[in-house]
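4.2 Preliminary Data

To establish feasibility before requesting continued support, the project team ran the inverse folding procedure on a target of 444 residues. The structure was first converted into the token representation described in Section 3, and no sequence information of any kind was made available to the design step. The complete token record follows.
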């Protein structure tokens, strides 16, 4: 596959991947509409930095708590059925959120509880969906399929907040929450119509959930490449969470803008991520996964510092554009490293551990930087986070991101080459067999 912008979209030639990718785009667009509405609504219900940052924490904390059990369920049970059940739960919580908002019964803590409930569903969706990706594309397309999933998520981030801001301005928060529920129903229909390839039946007894969870933890701890991906994900997302947690206050109080501008600003971040996704194949030809994550992290922290210093929408837009591109580059490289390290039998559980660390870092980081913003001010919090994040990026750089599957393939090839070099040269065949034993007959 050539490394060009066109190659970035090569996985879409697989019909099953394409259908679910489009449905995920609709669902994630609705999710970002809901996140935009929830974040903005909290600035009216309880406008302190801590309460506003709790909106993101409520969305991310369930993944920290339930990603590993959810991944174990996706390995033990049928992944398609697990995804459908989780999507039904999310759609029901989204409909309840819209109904309560329409009746005027939604307070600050009710908003957080329902956001948490939606996050419980995503805790199962993320590892199960990631583990199903290798079933949808060829192995050669897997790395870019992971990146393309990130592009779709960030394209939704570009469309959802902008659409959510305009919907809130035109029709109110209830309409924004209702659109979120419709997006979840679109993905539910795509999952119902997906015909998963028949899986080979195992003769082993069915695994129990506690033992399956323990096996996933043991794998994540034992494999160096997985440990490195988890550690570096924690180091990046813990500090990067400050931008998403504090951006509503940056837009409303620092820049004095309205909900539509908030949605557009998040859309700019999503556009930066989409642009980065199209050039990632060319970047990967020049940088290893570890170097890509390192430089993307430094770029993200520089953009964070610029956002904290901005007092006009123009430099702030440049900052979020750069941050969105760096977020996608680092996140897709880390996700691909984790996904390609895990074999099929434990993939959902291993990715559950990865998502546990990923979203746990986001949730804890959101709370911490929201508290720092309350004590020291939002600009100071962003500047402090950018500086400490750069130090952390340097500190974790020695933990190398290695593609375990490729590493094993290289070891096997090296062993075969050594064995082939020591093979004895066969004697010349008897004259009566020369017609049968020739150069095209191969070795025995």
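Position-by-position output of the design step:
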């Amino acid at each position: 596959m050539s490394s060009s912008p066109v190659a970035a979209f090569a996985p879409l030639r697989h019909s099953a991947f394409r259908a679910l990718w489009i449905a995920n785009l609709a669902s994630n667009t609705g999710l970002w509409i809901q996140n935009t509405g929830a974040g903005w609504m909290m600035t009216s219900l309880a406008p302190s930095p801590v309460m506003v940052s709790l909106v993101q924490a409520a969305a991310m904390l369930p993944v920290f708590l339930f990603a590993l059990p959810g991944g174990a369920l996706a390995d033990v049970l049928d992944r398609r059925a697990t995804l459908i059940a989780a999507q039904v739960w999310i759609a029901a919580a989204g409909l309840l959120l819209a109904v309560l908002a329409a009746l005027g019964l939604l307070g600050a803590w009710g908003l957080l509880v329902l956001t948490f409930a939606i996050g419980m569903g995503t805790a199962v969706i993320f590892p199960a969906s990631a583990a199903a990706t290798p079933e949808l594309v060829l192995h050669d397309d897997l790395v870019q399929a992971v990146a393309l999933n990130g592009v779709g998520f960030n394209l939704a981030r570009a469309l959802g907040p902008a659409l959510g801001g305009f919907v809130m301005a035109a029709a109110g928060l209830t309409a924004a929450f209702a659109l979120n529920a419709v997006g979840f129903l679109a993905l539910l229909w795509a999952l119902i119509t997906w015909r998963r390839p028949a899986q080979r039946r195992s003769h082993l007894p069915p695994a129990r959930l506690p033992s399956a969870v323990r096996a996933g933890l043991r794998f994540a701890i034992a494999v160096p490449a997985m440990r490195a991906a988890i550690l570096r994900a924690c180091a990046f997302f813990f500090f990067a969470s400050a931008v998403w947690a504090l951006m509503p206050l940056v837009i409303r109080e620092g820049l004095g803008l309205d909900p539509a501008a908030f949605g557009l600003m998040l859309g700019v971040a999503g556009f930066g991520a989409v642009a980065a996704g199209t050039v990632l194949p060319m970047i990967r030809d020049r940088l290893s996964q570890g170097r890509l994550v390192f430089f993307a992290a430094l770029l993200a922290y520089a953009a964070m510092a610029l956002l904290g210093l901005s007092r006009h929408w123009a430099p702030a837009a440049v900052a979020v554009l750069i941050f969105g591109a760096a977020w996608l580059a680092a996140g897709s490289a880390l996700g691909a490293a984790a996904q390609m390290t895990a074999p099929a039998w434990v993939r959902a559980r291993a990715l559950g551990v990865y998502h546990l660390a990923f979203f746990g870092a986001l949730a804890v980081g959101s709370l911490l930087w929201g508290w720092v913003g309350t004590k020291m001010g939002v600009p100071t919090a962003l500047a402090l986070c950018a500086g400490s994040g750069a130090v952390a990026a340097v500190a974790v750089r020695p933990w190398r991101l290695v593609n375990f599957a490729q590493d094993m393939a290289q070891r096997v090839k090296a062993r075969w080459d050594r064995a082939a070099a020591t093979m004895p040269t066969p004697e010349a065949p008897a004259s009566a067999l020369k017609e049968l034993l020739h150069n095209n007959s191969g070795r025995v």
